[in-house]
Amino acid sequence: MTSRGSRIAALGAAGLIAALAAPAQAQDKPTGFYVRGDVSAAFSTQADTQDDNCGGGAPYFGCGTTLDSSAGSSLGFSIGGGYRFLPFFRADATLGYRPMFGLDGTVTRPGTIDRPFDADVTSLNGMINGYLDIAGLMPGRLGILQPYVMAGIGLAHNDISDINSRHPTSTAPETLPDGGNLSFAWTLGVGTGIDMGKGIVIDVGYKYLDLGEFKSDAGNACTATGCRYVDSISGGLTVHEFSAGLRYHF
Which of 12, 18, 32 is closest to 201 using CA atoms? Predict the structure, then answer.
C-alpha cells in the first residue's frame, strides 16, 4: 500500500472510531431524565381458564372438565418516562395497553362432545421498571450498543368481554357476563439500546410478562331461548413480548 493509501486508510479508521465513540460518550452521562415510546407483539401462553368455584351452586364449566385455552396474541403500545441514576442503572414508569387478545378454548367433559368458547381480552397496565445497563459497567467497550437486563412490577386491569360458548349440536351461542379485574403484574426481560447520538436511542427487547388474571362477573348466561345464572370464570394472562421503540435522553 502507498503512503497516501495508508494515510487514507488511517483517516477512515479514525473516522469510524470517532463515529462509534461519540454515541458511547453520550451514554456515559452519569444521570439524566428520558422519555420513551414502544410498540410490541405479545404472544400468550396457556390461559388456564376455569370456574372460580367448580363445586358451587352455579358453575359454568363444572368440576371434572378439562379446559384447553389460550389468549392468542395482541399488539401492544406503551409510553413512559425515567431517570438514569448511575451509568449502569436507570428506572422508568410505563403505561402499556394491549387491546387485541382473543381467548380461544375447548371444554372437554368425559362422555360428552367437546364444546368451544371464545372471548375478547384487553389489558391496561402500569409498571415500575429497573434496568442494569451492561455498557455502563464497560465504558467505551461496546460502541453504540447498550445491552441490558430488566425487571418490573406493577398493576394490570384486565377486561374480558363478548364471551361466547357453543354446544356442537347448536348454532346459537350462549353469551356470558363481561368482567374486569385488577391484578398484580411483573416482568423480566433483556434487550439492547442502539445509541444514535444526540440523546436518541433505539430500543429492542424481549420480556416475559405476567399480567395476572382476567375474570368475568357472575350473572346471567343467555341463549336465544332463555337465560340461566352462572358463577364467574377466570384465567391467567401471561405473555412473551417482543418490542421496538425509541428513548430520548435529555
Answer: 32
pTM for this structure? 0.83
Cell of 206: 424481549
Q: Which residues pair with 175 in a beta bridge?
A: 164, 222
Tell how far CA 84 is from the center of its chain: 23
205: its cell numbers? 427487547
Q: Summarize pLDDT for 148-203 with one digit per residue, the tens.
A: 999 999 999 999 999 998 876 666 788 999 999 999 999 999 999 999 999 999 99
List residues bridging with 101 in a β-sheet.
121
Domains defined along the chain, listed by start: 3-249 (2.40.160.20)
Q: Which of 240, 179, 189 is nearest to 211 (CA)?
A: 240
- Which of 215, 112, 221 has its CA nearest to residue 168? 112
- Four-residue CA torsion sign, 180, 77, 26, 190: positive
End-to-end Cα, the chain, rounded Å: 45
Would you say the C-alpha torsion 185, 190, 194, 197 has a positive or negative sign? positive
Quickly list H helices, 76-188: 134-137
Cα–Cα distance measured from residue 186 to residue 211, given in angstroms and rounded to the nearest whole number: 7
- Residue 37 CA to residue 81 CA, distance in Å, equals 9
Q: Which residues pair with 188 in a beta bridge?
A: 151, 208
77 forms beta bridges with 39, 97
- The answer to whether residues 89 and 83 touch, using CB atoms and an 8 Å cutoff, is no
SS3 state at 23 = helix
| SS3 of residue 135 by DSSP | helix
